[in-house]
């Protein structure tokens, strides 16, 4: 398991395709994070940087 943007999933491409196909809500989960506050902060920063423009 890894924080958003640090794992093997191409989240940027996944979110682009999901947005193009009409997905409105995205949920991302990280179980057993060793430092939940750090995981939340780094994942939020990464996801904010690739968020589709509204």
Percentage beta strand: under 5%
- Helix percent reads 40-55%
Q: Which regions are unreliable across 5 or more consecutive residues at pLDDT < 50?
A: none
Q: How many helical stretches?
A: 2
Question: H/E element string?
Answer: HH
User: Number of domains in the coordinates?
Assistant: 1
The dominant shape is elongated
Distance between the termini: 30 Å
User: Structural class from helices and strands?
Assistant: mainly alpha
Give the number of DSSP strands. Answer: 0
Main sheet specs: none
Compute the gyration radius: what is it? Answer: 12 Å
Describe the structure concisely for a colleague.
With 54 residues, the chain is mostly helical. 46% of the residues lie in helices and 0% in strands.
Q: What key attributes describe this structure?
A:
mainly alpha; 54 residues; 0% strand
Care to describe what's here?
The protein has one domain. It is built from two helices and no strands. It has helices spanning 11-20, 36-50. The longest helix is centred in the C-terminal third of the chain and has 15 residues, at 36-50. The radius of gyration is 12 Å and the shape is elongated. It starts with 10 loop residues before the first helix and ends with a helix.
């Amino acid at each position: 398991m890894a924080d958003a943007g640090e794992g093997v999933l191409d989240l940027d491409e996944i979110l682009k395709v999901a947005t193009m196909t009409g997905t409105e809500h995205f949920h991302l989960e990280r179980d057993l994070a060793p430092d939940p506050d750090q995981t939340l902060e780094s994942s939020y920063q990464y996801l904010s940087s690739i968020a589709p423009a509204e």
